[in-house]
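Problem statement: downstream parser choked on a complex file, so we are re-checking the raw output for the magnesium ion run. The parser issue turned out to be on our end (a line-ending mismatch), but while we're here, posting the original submission so the record is complete.
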Amino acid sequence: MAKPSLKASPQGAQVAKQALLRSGLTQQELRSQVGCSRQPLTNFFKGDAIAQTLFIRICEHLGLSWREIADLPPSPAEFVALSTENPTADLRSTPFDRGADIALPYPPPSNGTGQPTKIDLGTAPNLTTFYGREAELKFLTQAILQRHTALVVLLGLRGMGKTTLAIKLVESIKQEFDHVIWRSLAYNPPPPLTQLLADLLQSFSNRDIGSLSQAVDDRISQLLTDLRQNRCLLVLDNAESLMQDHALAGAYRPGYEDYRELFRRIGTERHQSCLILTTRETPREIAELEARDFPVSLLSVMGLAENDAYQLLEAKGLGDRTYWNTLIEIFQGNPLVLQIVAATIQRSFGGQVSLFLKQATITTRQIVDLLDQQFDSLSPLEREIMYWLAVQPQPLAFAELKELIDASGADLLDALESLLRRSLIQGEAAFTLQPVVRQYVINEFTQQQLSLELTHVRNSIQHLLVQNSRSAPATEQ
Ligand SMILES: Nc1ncnc2c1ncn2[C@@H]1O[C@H](COP(=O)(O)OP(=O)(O)OP(=O)(O)O)[C@@H](O)[C@H]1O
Ligand SMILES: [Mg+2]
């Protein structure tokens, strides 16, 4: 009989790569710790099937819950049926189960009260069109309804479709909850925690606001009581509004640090609810909770798959199909950017994608605005890394960056992790930029001749720009 095998889901493989980076281990070191050869480890990170026991061992060494990483069949029962080799030992010893103990018991997957779900979507946008995202929806539905994840983070660049995905998810699973509450944090300034808590507590049970304690901790405790007594799906959209600009990703802006305690308690205390955050950067402690096997899930929202992006371009009435692939590739399937670009092509290029690709610099004004916002919040060290990665056509390894940049290894690692948390760079052992981001950074560089903090690397970067101009992607001309 064939040995039971497991493979990582696309998102799981990504999470595993990030965990490897966080661990500071090379693949070779991980191999010797786990005790396996090169091929199965490569297969693991690629999302190919490997022996189930080895899969679980690798996850344990990376401090991950294997159930979060694996591309599991629809129900746990089916999975158990797959496990023919001492399955219960594996299941019991997984880190996830330690996490699950914290939050059990859960009710069956329906609100079970006989009462209709109370839905308070606040300012959530209406969903008009929705394409694809089957894998993400499957992953999230399993995480929330089967694995009872208490805190789910949808992380991604601006316009990648986090809010849209969250709305679709809420629509498809809302019946399983007593309450569904959606709140946006995208205000300037965002709501202080005490105000948000008052709003949530009122939404739960029409409490008189005057009867609430003034102390934030008491209000968090009250909310936790509600989350224990009711099965609630709570969405906080645009949580990056809570984060500090010009600092490494994941630090709170002054006056908003108490949100840390809210997220920590929801992620670690026993209750039967789920909080979904959408954000362009992840609060640091959430990544830590995930690494410590609390029931916390982080999903990186990437661009639309090619077929789904095709549908989007079709709906925008774009012709010239031959070049759609190029367009989707350049903009990494970012649905917001594709919509903007499609409109620009219609308006200014008579609908001809080829003309746009030939003539336009890809950073049209609106796209630049999108990236300006992301770029503005970077620390000086993060900016410097971005510039170096922009001028290098090949991915740069940590050691190579260390040689180029005058910073301690620890600071550099923090900054790289921060950029990964912001989804601005990609890679594990070596790092690179998405094409549209690369183009933006190069434009920024040539227009501004680098900002003051980068003067000491200006000459060498200019030199590299000249050297690399031949090997730069076609869209950067
Ligand atoms: N799956 C999808 N199908 C169709 N359109 C989509 C999809 N995902 C996103 N879009 C469209 O792309 C645009 C951006 O999506 P959305 O607002 O969800 O991005 P976001 O990641 O939440 O951005 P931000 O970081 O600014 O909050 C919206 O106009 C939305 O309608
Ligand atoms: Mg959004």
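For whoever reads this later: The pocket of adenosine-5'-triphosphate (ligand 1) is lined by residues 129-133, 156, 158-164, 238, 278, 280, 304, 312, 335-336, 339 (CB under 6 Å).
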